[in-house]
């Protein structure tokens, strides 16, 4: 009886895993076509300065509208693309579109907003990123200082010296480097000294917990204070309520991003928001 259960159980798992693999392979194939068929697009979520209350930049976020399945969950297909290597082609696409669109954005208070592009570990390891960025900046005419690259904390601290060198090269060219989802990687703030960065983005999980959880609030305050003592700018992501806004303002956070201030939107809508 136990044996039978075990067998049934095994068969069940096997079929389940086959289905998961099949779906992933299907996703991989569809993703391959998605670029050629123009199913991928880029939306922009505004980033506000707390001091001026104005939009100072926007994060580029990729979207995939599948012909049969509709809008696909970004985190899911990015994860698949990272495994298969398709993230390199997708990343090139997003970088090209983001630079071209941001180059046309109007100034706000005499300053043109930056565009912030997510970069995956694979793109950075691959080695060609500094040259690619250089080519896209030249082709679009976007000044380097108006391009920010977001790397995740976990990825940054597992990188080889070579990839850290690529970051340094990008920074030397005037591009800004941000650590995304900061606080989730358990890297410790002292690691910040090791890597050449301009800013950190406090992960959404701290912001969503900070009003109910004293630890989240303490960590958020500590990240802001430590970053500032190192001359690093702090952006909080996932700001959804006025309470969170006020708590972050009271602790001296520099910039805010979240549904309270603006959802991801088309480039045309962003330009309208900018008053252009
Ligand atoms: P991320 O870089 O941390 O981007 C922020 C995510 O939080 C976005 O999800 C955004 O829509 C969402 N978000 C912003 N404000 C709020 C808020 O107030 N509440 C809540 N609940 N969510 C908020 P999205 O667009 O689904 O992207 C998910 C992740 O996928 C991104 O996280 C990023 O890691 C990755 N990703 C997106 N676009 C790209 C890309 O072009 N290249 C790479 N490599 N990764 C990308
Ligand atoms: Mg990001
Ligand atoms: Mg983030
Ligand atoms: Mg995140």
TrEMBL record:
Residues 24-276 form the EAL domain. It is found in: Cell membrane. This is EAL domain-containing protein.
């Amino acid at each position: 009886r136990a044996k039978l259960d075990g067998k049934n159980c095994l068969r069940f798992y096997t079929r389940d895993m086959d289905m998961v693999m099949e779906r992933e392979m299907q996703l991989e194939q569809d993703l391959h076509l998605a670029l050629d068929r123009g199913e991928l697009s880029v939306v922009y979520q505004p980033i506000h300065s707390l001091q001026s209350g104005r939009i100072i930049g926007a994060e580029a976020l990729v979207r995939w509208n599948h012909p049969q399945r509709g809008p696909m969950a970004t985190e899911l297909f990015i994860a698949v693309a990272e495994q298969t290597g398709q993230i390199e082609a997708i990343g090139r696409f997003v970088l090209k579109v983001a630079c071209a669109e941001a180059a046309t954005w109007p100034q706000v208070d005499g300053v043109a907003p930056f565009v912030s592009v997510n970069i995956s570990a694979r793109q950075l390891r691959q080695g060609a990123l500094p040259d690619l960025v250089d080519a896209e900046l030249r082709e679009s005419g976007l000044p380097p200082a108006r391009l920010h690259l977001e790397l995740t904390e976990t990825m940054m601290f597992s990188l080889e010296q070579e990839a850290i060198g690529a970051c340094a090269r990008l920074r030397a060219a005037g591009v800004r480097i941000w650590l995304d989802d900061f606080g989730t990687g358990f890297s410790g703030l002292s690691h910040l000294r090791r890597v050449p960065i301009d800013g950190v983005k406090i992960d959404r999980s701290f912001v969503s917990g900070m009003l109910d959880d004293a630890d989240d609030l303490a960590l958020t305050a500590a990240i802001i204070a430590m970053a500032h003592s190192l001359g690093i700018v702090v952006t909080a992501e996932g700001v959804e309520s006025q309470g969170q806004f006020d708590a972050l303002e009271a602790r001296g956070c520099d910039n805010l991003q979240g549904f309270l201030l603006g959802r991801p939107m088309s480039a045309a809508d962003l330009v309208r928001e900018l008053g252009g």
